[in-house]
Amino acid sequence: MKIEFGTSARRALLSTLLATVAGGSVGAAQAADLSKIKTIVVIYAENRSFDHLYGLFPGADGIANARPKQYLQRDHDGSILPYLRVWNAKGEPDPNYPQLPNKPFRIDAPPVNKTASEVLLSPIHAFYHNQEQIDGGKNDMFAAMSTVGGYTMGYFDGSKMKMWKWAKEYTLADNFFMGAFGGSYLNHQYLICLCAPEHKDAPEFMRAVLDDKGKLKKKPDSPSAKDGAVKTYTVGLGGQVTPDGYSVNTTQPPYQPSGLPPADGGSLDMADPKGNERIGLPLPASKMQTIGDTLSAKGVSWVWYSGGWNDALKDGMRPASEKRSVIYTKAEGSLNFQPHHQPFNYYARFAPGTKDRAEHLKDGADFVKAIESGTLPQVSFYKPAGVFTEHPAYTDIMTGDAHIADLVEKLSKSPQWKDMVVIVTYDENGGFWDHAKRQRGPGWSDRWGPGTRIPALIISPFARRGYVDHTPYDTGSIAKLITARFGLEHLQGERKNIGDLTKALRLR
Predict the structure, then answer these.
(1) What's the distance, CA 255 to chain centroid?
(2) Which CATH superfamily is domain 34-504 in?
């Protein structure tokens, strides 16, 4: 039978064929309609690698895919370690942990038998340590360059987490890397500016001591990784500033709330500019461009919400002679507010008394009110208080997991939900091993990162359902999505090749 096509049918067929040739399918030829997204929410938890929490997730590139060459840990001389030991604060074997085979191990299973509801060890997570741990992509120096030794290889059965259920229902990104090497401070900065802030006048004691290969210089008595924790000339916070003056490890903000109290006789709004020997000087107020600048320039509403912000402000403005009860304290009932998790508080635009500070830096309670009333700004960042971040050493996984899951539940019932994209991720790996190899080269990496792989969930009516997204992303993908959606000026540090999270969404 011969089938005849009229003029309109022929035109339709030709259009389909052209679309197929151009993009593989009609749908693929159509650009994502980002205008459908009215509200973007970013929830930023703490210090867990992907394998550490989601290494057993069905369909993900998890621990089962790691081959021996991807997990066997090496000593400082390059030899394979015969076993793993866990070190205590003195760099000696921790009697609470047995000697373990050189491979990933379940923390919540024999012979370790610790639970995700316990406050457990925190491996070092610092800029130069993370670079050396990654070892060019081999990921085989995590134990040797960790303050806790082999504990860095531990992971949990994450299926007990409430957020695991949200990951199964929506999209889990299993190729998402922390934007910068190292710890929380720099990765919070990277989230908002895709940069490392300058600290050109930092004193020498704040600067990292490196060898001729650009690695942390080891002390002559630094032991084998079989015998104890590494010893470097860079002590304390891991070398806060690079030799050429960029701030890469925990440095305190110049404004309260800060880990540094106000100066005697000085403004209670300010951190003591003289600092101290343990913490160093506060970072000078930065004027580098942030996502906040580009959002405001376009008239896009946005807020950084922090759990405990109002309480921490009051606590930070106590005279130096008074003991603090909110900032950096694990006292029972304390929110344990972490000032170095507040990136905008380092910027001159958000100095005390400014309109921008009042408009854009708000308390976590305001976040909940805005969710429930349907008055969230177009872009929201939410940082839980320390006790809810999942950060090892001062909180546990399950408390923070329940807190974040409760917020996601509230967001799913918000009047704004139908047009919303929620991104739940972690600032960095917390010093925990992950087997995945990061992308390298122009457009993928630079001096600052990316570092180790971390979990990221995309939860939205637009999100692919029951989907594991293998697209290469890093923390900068969040700024990239926000920039694309609202037509913002691109931040200078944007990595051109990383995804913008739209592969996780159905927006056509």
Answers:
(1) 23
(2) Alkaline Phosphatase, subunit A (3.40.720.10)
